[in-house]
Amino acid sequence: MRKTILVILLLFLANVVFATKIVSLPEIIKPDVIEVDGDDMVIVEGASISIYSLKNFKLIKKFGKEGEGPQEFKLIMGSFGLNINIYPKYIFVNSVGKISYFTRKGEFIKEKKMSAINRMTPFQEKFVGNHMQMDPKTNKPKMGFNIYNSEGEKTKEICSHEMPMFSGQGIFLIDLLSQINPQYKTSRDRIVISGKQLFEIDIYDQEGNFLKSIKRDQKKQKLDDDDKKKLMKAYETHSLYKLFWGNIKKSIKIPDYFPPYKTFFISNQKVYVQTFKKKNDKTECLIFDVNGKYLKTSFLPLVYENIMTPYLYTIQGGKIYQLVENENEEWELRLSEIK
Known about the structure:
The N terminus is likely disordered. Strand 16 and strand 17 form a beta hairpin. This protein is mostly beta strands. The radius of gyration is 21 Å and the shape is globular. Strands 1-24-23-22 form a 4-stranded antiparallel beta sheet, with no helix packed on it. The chain is built from 3 helices and 24 strands. The protein has a domain of 96 residues: Thrombin, subunit H (Beta Barrel), CATH 2.40.10.480.
């Protein structure tokens, strides 16, 4: 009897820990980016920006369209979303060849022409950004992570990574198959960049000087035959590749093991690293401080679009904000606390 009561209690506590609030977002059609800060949530769809209040989940303002004129945004290949960052007094928008500033309510402040850098983020009176370039030694594309001055001029290269899709080992579709698309995040005085090794995330100071690597020895997770079939199906139906599937399917190489991690986020001076390990249908998240010290492991109630990729989400303030398309093809926000 006591054992039965204990099991029921544990199940109850598990549900309480990951109680998920679900909110319908009828205005959303095809989200590319989600960012959260305080009581504001910003969702990007192509060149369109929607600002929501997290107090009542109502749309505050929707603005932006594709173009090169004032308060318009040019997109890479016309299909990828904008880079958005939310700050206490403004929203920063990085589009091709331009940076723009808006109030937290979506009112225009100013904009400035910049060089066509893939992504830039304001940081310590300057910018941190990444830029695709050709490596003269290998003649292959690489992603460089740099510090730029207020005019968008590169003042320092922090590091660079060869892009995995061009590794000569078949077509690596970065969003599904490779470790992660080389990326960076910033905190108050730290720059955090995905490393080159299996499980490595590098930490730099505000001047771009290397401080420490977050490294983790993990048992490899094998992809079985069923996993590989699901992954190939995910490629075949992916919006970026389905039109060319007949030409590329023979070039795709499926790995024997899952990558060691998918992506990472920084919030409240903590680094949240999402792996592919699952437990009771929840996804492992390793949590470190911004100096690389391991804090704890949590399992997140993420919903997956396919075997490799969860639906679009972000982590902020110890909470998960995930946009999920339901069975009625309507988008909803799923909000959960991380314990």
